[in-house]
């Protein structure tokens, strides 16, 4: 099932790229494997997936040693400062930086491990109360502060769009994030690129691709529905 789903998602990304006149190579599919067992990740790996997204530090550290070393792990969930140390040398990209304090902790831990950590800033474009992320107007000042950190490299922006029935409803959200990234790129800030735009999930990734996403984060569309009740019992 995972292999078929993965191929379907790839086809859909290709179609969305064609509709928008984009090269499918510009779009990285992140297989969001949170709550899913290692054998399902292995199946995705065997079908060619190399980039996996997780939203819990514990799951990354559990799965990391059980799977091939050429996987790129992306931290896409809210990150607590006291857990940064467990993943700073394991993740290829942290999508969810939304405060100076968190960035300071990443800088300290990255310096200890002598690594440079690529990050995205998470923007709560829709200003939903229940979500983490920066307000649009907070992004540039934070970029300017973090740009000075030698062990962090800002590579772009991420947003989690609202849950909607019709993905078209999120098109303006994706446009706003794209515009913000273009505006920030135009400032030519040292040590900062805006090459990554992480937006679009199972319900709306085709629209996100049409609006310029360079990374889409697809979980359900690849691995099926998540069963949180079962996971809670297991723990
Ligand atoms: C769970 C999650 C996803 C994937 O959601 P689906 O709707 O299952 O595709 C994407 N991004 C983030 C940040 C997530 O936490």
TrEMBL record:
This is Pyridoxal phosphate homeostasis protein. It comes from Blautia intestinihominis. It holds the Pfam family Ala_racemase_N. Signal peptide: none annotated. Belongs to the pyridoxal phosphate-binding protein YggS/PROSC family. Pyridoxal 5'-phosphate (PLP)-binding protein, which is involved in PLP homeostasis. It comes from the Bacteria. Gene3D superfamilies: Alanine racemase.
